[in-house]
Amino acid sequence: MHSVIVENYIKTIYQLENLEGRATTSLLSEKMQVSPATATDMMKRLADEGIVRHEPYRGVRLTGRGKKHALKIIRRHRLWELFLVQVLDFEWHEIHEEAELLEHCTSEKLEARLDEYLGHPTVDPHGHAIPNSNGEIPNIEYIPLASANPGDTVRLRRVNDDSSDVLQYLSQLGIELGSDLAIVEKIAFDGTMRVRVDGGEQFISEKLANHLFGELMKGGA
Fold first, then answer.
1. E strands of the chain, at which residues?
2. Of 64, 140, 142, 176, whose CA is between 20 and 30 Å from 211?
3. Per-residue pLDDT, 180
4. Number of domains in the chain
5. What is the pLDDT of residues 5-50, one digit of tens each?
6. 13 phi and psi, to 5 degrees?
């Protein structure tokens, strides 16, 4: 059984591989908020354990064993996030830090009971896919809101940002998973969008729109 810090490294390497295509020393040290030397030492330790393999000048990548372990941690995290929202009435911006604590102290038995209690869910409250008990995760393709054009309507299915500030801001705008965002205007200067949602209009920056993913609805706005 790995320590909390080791599990956080494994999960972070998985996330960096998906976001950046690789986990370099500089990216890992920045994400983990440690010195490059500390990150390098951990990379060597994980390589010795067969969790990662080193690629010269490209950092490290998870082995099959390492990826399976990362998905186990992510599965527990997302199950706990859903439990906190559905059972304990947490808001979606309150759950990430709590799930960060709970994911590390969850046994196989508790994980199975949690999954069963929640009805074997497939997505968490932010729309991220929950890996199944076999370590498999579906690849669901959605479009980024930023790629939509005036006249399009996008149904929000995933928010790729766990920042509580971002999630709170979306709530203030009346935007949640399942919301239909009708693109009224897209400002060429900076990509800001004017969208219609629930009868009102809101402005969404290009930066935020790149973190919002959904499905393009037929018929448009």
1. 52-55, 59-62, 143-144, 153-159, 180-186, 193-197, 200-204, 212-216
2. 64
3. 97
4. 2
5. 999 999 999 999 988 888 999 999 999 999 999 999 999 999 999 9
6. -60, -40
Write down the pTM of the prediction.
Answer: 0.90
Amino acid at 8: N
Considering the domain boundaries, does residue 75 fall inside one? no
The answer to whether 15 and 66 are in contact (CB under 8 A) is no
Q: What are phi and psi of 170, to 5 degrees?
A: -60, -40
Structure tokens, 21? 């295509």
Choose among 42, 95, 97, 82: nearest CA to 66: 42
Bridge partners (DSSP) of residue 143 are 214
3-state secondary structure at position 38 = helix
Neighbouring CB atoms inside 10 A of 46's CB total: 22
Range of the structural domain that residue 173 is part of: 143-217
Q: Which residues contact 179 (CB under 8 A, 6 or more apart)?
A: 155, 156, 197, 198
The verdict on residue 46 lying in a domain is: yes
Q: What is the number of residues in the chain?
A: 221
What contacts 78, CB < 8 A, 6 or more positions away? Answer: 99, 124, 128, 130, 131
168: exposed, middle or buried (Cβ count in 10 Å: 0-12, 13-18, 19+): middle
